[in-house]
Fold these 2 entries.
Entry 1:
Amino acid sequence: MSGTYLGMPAFPEAAREAVGDTTLRGNLRHATHTIRAKRAKAVTEVSDWAELREAGKRIKDHTLRYLDRYLEQLEESVTAAGGIVHWAADAAEANEIVTRLVKATGETEVVKVKSMATQEIGLNEALEAEGIRAYETDLAELIVQLGKDRPSHILVPAIHRNRGEIRDIFAREMGEWGRPAPEGLTDTPAELAEAARLHLREKFLRAKVGISGANFMVAETGTLVVVESEGNGRMCLTLPETLISVVGIEKIVPTWRDLEVFLQTLPRSSTAERMNPYTSTWTGTTDSETADGPSTFHLVLLDNGRTDTLADEVGRQALRCIRCSACLNVCPVYERAGGHAYGSVYPGPIGAILSPQLRGTGSEIDASLPYASSLCGACYDVCPVAIDIPEVLVHLRERVVQGGEVTREGNKVVLRPAKGHAAERAAMRAARWAFTHPGALRTGQRAASRSRRFHPRTLPGPGRAWSGTRDLPPVPAEPFRDWWQRTRGGKDGDR
Amino acid sequence: MNSRERILGRVRRALADAPAEDEPIARDYLREHGQRTVAETVELLAENLADYRAVVHRCTDEELPDVLTRLLAERGARSVLVPPGLPPHWLGAVDATRVPDRAVSTPHELDQVDSVVTGCAVAIAETGTIVLDGSPDQGRRRITLVPDHHICVVRVPGQVVSSVPQGLERLDPARPLTWISGPSATSDIELDRVEGVHGPRTLEVVLVGQGRTGAT
């Protein structure tokens, strides 16, 4: 993934700063609570939500199970429709392919549709290094790009900014990139949207190369689908002469009909709308007589850790994700820590299971992400493809602590247990010994009960970090087993 | 080994132990939500279009040219993009300069045009969506994108379906499709919907049929 995130501190350190930022907390609370209520209403409107969710899950599981077959079918149908298919095993290869394709057009600037895949690979930075300027055209991406900032939400990357901050960024930075913001710009959302319209218009009209991702790719027809709101997607997909789409290999659905499920569940889950304002679908290129849109279409199929994720029996369900971001909006941890603390373009609950699988758990931030959750399960409840995020989180915690066999870049490797969890392992070993030695357990429990007045509120030594954010459970005056023996389980009416 | 072979090989190794997933997918979700008469479906389309800030008008076949003339005049449109297959009499009385949809037009030229009038391929009532498929009465995708004012004519009830599944059934994936649900909008500022970004900021939908007359 993007080098921007190298050297990120572990989640708890990164989150500590965010949690102390009252403006950020206010912005996040306002935005997530607004969308939460709306999503719930949009979902209640369709009485068959449970069936749609189950069908979405099944379609994705089936696709992933036969992914090799569907990838080959997709390649064939895209090629037959006049598109050119490229395969990229990792970020560097994808960036190299796209850079080469842009250079071949002779252009030095491109317009971009919001795309998680191109953020994941750090495409903009790679293009910049080769003298090609990429203009982000989604409003939130524009705010992030102009503010020299990092995205903090899958759907609304500038969710951490409020309208006043956005106004300031536009007024200060737009002139550096092209048409300046109008004089006297206020912070009303309509005026801010208008400023973005004016600023980007000239870029759309002169663009020769567009770069996009895709929400879905249909294997049987070779059709790509982009779901959006603003019309910047339509601009990038139709006005340029060359279109380059970089898409993760897991974005396939087998048939055209399968879209009937996701085009119902995605908009309601993401922006809480019955339908998003614009959805574009295209199949290769059209012939010259009725030419509509780009005359050259390249599809770059991206692996970059997806096949490694696929190799994990429990973790592979993360590849069902359709990037709706409903799990972010309901997450109590995300609401307080914000997206930046996750150290990845994929923040929130889905990021906590996706990033450590795509990138491995080698870095401090990735090893800490499976712990960035209270396991409350709200994410699983709202997920339109029923990804059991808590299950994967626990699975990844186990992997971090115990190590074991994983797949990295297609090869099986054995992970060593993480260093930082020595105290946890020691505690678990001690617990196992105690629970298998009833006499010792009884003696220990009685001692604990008798000494309870002297118990500290926080643990000493390595336990300090654990009890720094948790209350120690109070020890009862009498161990349960003693109470049971004395009262025969309360049958004597004695308490 | 090239990357294609490398990726496909990784996929196959990753799935070597995976159990089969070949049971047919249970599509026990609904084909449409609720029971409605044809008239009620059209009514729902109008409601949902309006809910997402499209301006809805209704008229009969005979009234259509007058309605289009009036809407363009009210907008003050000096020029209007016309797809090649639009019935000529629809815009017979229009004062605005007609601009044909041509492959050679540059985006800058299209940006000078005030309005566009098109038909549509299908309209979906439950979601308030109109779908364009580039047929001769709709033209290239860009002509309904660059001008700031789009008037879309929907034949009711013939072009109206209830639901997304029914809509997809009627569409040809080989054609470039544009699904439109209200004018362009964004939720990017504080996750609240604001209309009017890059696409046409005014979307007017004319429902043409034997139904009642006048704007709703």
Entry 2:
Amino acid sequence: MKKLMLSSVLGVAALAIAGSASSAATLDDVKAKGFVQCGVSQGLPGFSNPDADGNWSGLDVDFCRAVAAAIFGDGDAVKFTPLSAKERFTALQSGETDLLSRNTTWTMSRDTQLGLNFAGVNYYDGQGFMIRTEMGINSALELSGASICTNTGTTTELNVADYFRANNMEYELVAFEKADEVVAAYDAGRCDVYTTDASGLYAQRLKLTNPGEHKVLPEIISKEPLGPVVRQGDDQWFNIVKWVHIATVNAEELGITSANVDEMMGGDNPSVKRLLGVEGEFGAGIGLENDWAAKVIKAVGNYGEIFDRNVGPDTPLGIARGVNALWTKGGLMYGPPIR
Amino acid sequence: MAVSEAPPSGPQSADTGAPKVALLNNPEIRGWLFQIILAVLIAYLALQGWMNMNANLQAAGIASGWAFMGNNAGFAISQSLIEYSQASSTYGRVYIVGLLNTIAVAFVGIILATIIGFIVGVARLSKNWLVSRLATVYVESLRNVPLLLQIFIWYFGVLRLLPQPRDGFDFGPLGLLNNRGYFAPKPVWGEGAGYAFYAFIIGCVVAWAIGRWAYRRQMQTGQTFPSFLVGLGIIVFLPLVVFLAMGAPLTWDIPEMGGFRPRGGMTIIPEYIAMLVALSTYTASFIAEIVRAGILAVNRGQTEAANALGLRSGPTLRLVIVPQAMRIIIPPLTSQYLNLTKNSSLAVAIAYPELTSVFAGTALNQTGQAVEIILLTMLTYLAISLLTSLFMNWYNNRVALVER
């Protein structure tokens, strides 16, 4: 009895402590444990995907590495938590991960009602439809009555609903928890259509039995700005994550690559000097060293390098830059100045 | 806190005669005291946890409350036993749809599992070598493979076996079968069909009364009466006669192939079939063992006594062995029913839209109100389980040994 009481009292104490610790500075926690705990997908080629040896790669994974490099100077100081679409926000809210970099769409309700903040957009995506070529369908407007496979807990579910309602069409939704089962069920013919973000369609198509027999329809039915997410209430951490992304975009604009970053440090361009920490005290403002951005570029390269390495035209996904090109080249990638 | 719990010891507990024990040393009062302290502590712990959670939710800026239940859900659900429209139904409606889908798979699953379980359990005791070995193989292979894997095997097995809608089986008036599900004809009741339904209820009551009468007569005179067959006849023929007399007011909505999949009729989606088969065959393997244990626990002398009275093996099993075995079977059977109901939440893996999938899954993600939704989902499973237990306990009391 006495022991039980004692443990109950300890339990209350632990609970009270846990309550007060939840809003402590994430940067201090991360520095103390020595790595960034990053929430990623359970396997989406090009964005976050583990190889046979468990090494993660992809655009979202490189973002996690960039944040780790900014803090520790080491892009490998990251631990990855594979999360389903359903689990992702709870994992971040509860502090299980420091950062969520999991092809997550920035929407108003997610930004304002979940206690989370979106720290920018590192991939502009839109929802599309994939269908068997033999069906002879060329437009999403011909899909009335189709069975549609997708993931639960995503914006895609709602977008499909809106699109079909707006166009007065019927559909049957078959929603799975994990992307692997969605692909397997679509491959087995349970559904006529597989819908998710267009980037995801190209990525998942590689997993099908005969990728050549499927095509992506031309309609893009939604705006899906994908970006990293942090918990609300820790502005310092929010700033770090936000500016790590901006640094990779500005580096591309300024022509700084992982290969020439040391050389550029010695150059005369003041914008480059400020970005790489040769001039100014910009690192101090976010609690990091002044060469934080130089470390990021050394570890993962600029945005263009990250894009080309993971999803670009020379990868199996073969996605063109499109709207993800720099603003100077007709795209949407635009980094506020560092000054 | 740590001070008050220490039982005082020392001079005041000195022995001063039997009735004059110090209040704190009175075992009954002491027992009460500790119980109260523990109860207060637990309540305090729960209250602290609750307040802490609320404070954290507020600090993190996470929305809370139940207002979301009235909001428009806006997503489609592939199977719904009640009217549901993605355009106008609320999250509250989503909850009910999910709950009904859970019950649909759990209730039918329990019935199927019981039937298969009893057959296999009796078969394991069969004197026929082949039958008993087959039953053993069934039990050992199904109960030793994780349920989730079995669900996947059934689901993707069903999907691969069935053809695409365009090359699907067409049974004419009996409906269509393809990998989008079984599209059955849907009965559309016309005017006057209600009378046939009333006749069915009257038939049931009459059959029940005949059963009671036959039982009492057998107790008194020993004469048997084929009450089962007569009752069945009344239940079937009375409504049939009324139905025909009303001019057979029934038409069928027969599904027809549409652009992508059949339209009209009633649809049984492959996810439901896979889930039902996986749950019932898996649970049946446990029930079979429970049934076997129950039958083996009935003393062999009971069989011999029944044989000595001249009962054949059928009535011996039905009237002597099984009623006694039931007393042993019912309590563990109840846990299997509860297991089956809770295991139905695995359906989220194969897109069967039950409570965990649509409410604790999609609705949770759209609204982000994890605490409310998970709490309600847990309470729902708790309520279903308690109701099942309540019913089974009532039944157990009915069949319990009445000592005379």
